[in-house]
Amino acid sequence: xGAAPKPINEVERLRALSEYRILGTKPEESYDNITSMAAMIxxxxxxxxxxVDQSRQWFKSRVGCDQQQTERDISFCAHTILNPQxxxxxxxxxxxxxxxxxxxxxxxxxxxxxxxPLNTPNDQRIGTLCVxxxxxxxxxxxxxxxxxxxxxxxxxxxxxxxxSLDLLExxxxxxxxxxxxxxxxxxxxxxxxxxxxxxxxDYMMRHSxxxxxxxxxxxxxxxxxPEVSRAGC
Length: 233
Fold this sequence. Notes:
The chain is an alpha+beta fold and about 230 residues long. It is about 40% helix and about 20% strand. Strands 3-2-1-6-5-4 form a six-stranded antiparallel beta sheet. It has a two-stranded antiparallel sheet with strand order 7-8.
């Protein structure tokens, strides 16, 4: 078994992948809906959105697979990103590229692999939408067409993410000139002038004369310490 060669545009491809800032993010329903539909339309037990990094493939969404990532050297998807067309292997046991692959000889015992490249608007293939079965089989023309459109939808979601992040970056650059403070919508950290993110208290103590102490409000007391809250009633 040989690892897939690196694409000739590997540096640009990795740069394009990094712009989405998606690696390591938590599961999201919009991506999970796509893998669920892929598994259903292809009657496959496994479906993945795989992003091929420098030395691994990382799964943004997965159906029927417990692993979060695998080594790039044994990745089927690393072969898929070498060409703009789908890679469909009907029985991996009879394909010289994969017949000795541990993913074929061991769990998950891949037989069918159908990978559809995630082609960015700049023609960089950053990963795949793929389905896997433990039994040899082929896909119908309709299934192939649907999978291609689902792969395009993954790229659309990634592009929306990239553009949203770019807009947020531009907005945050205005905070110094407009007197605005940019905070994270999730963890509430504050973005400082150098682009780093600091806890709210740390930021305010550095930029004002305020000091902070901590207590527990009644709402949080009731939610996290119900026994104590009831005892005080």
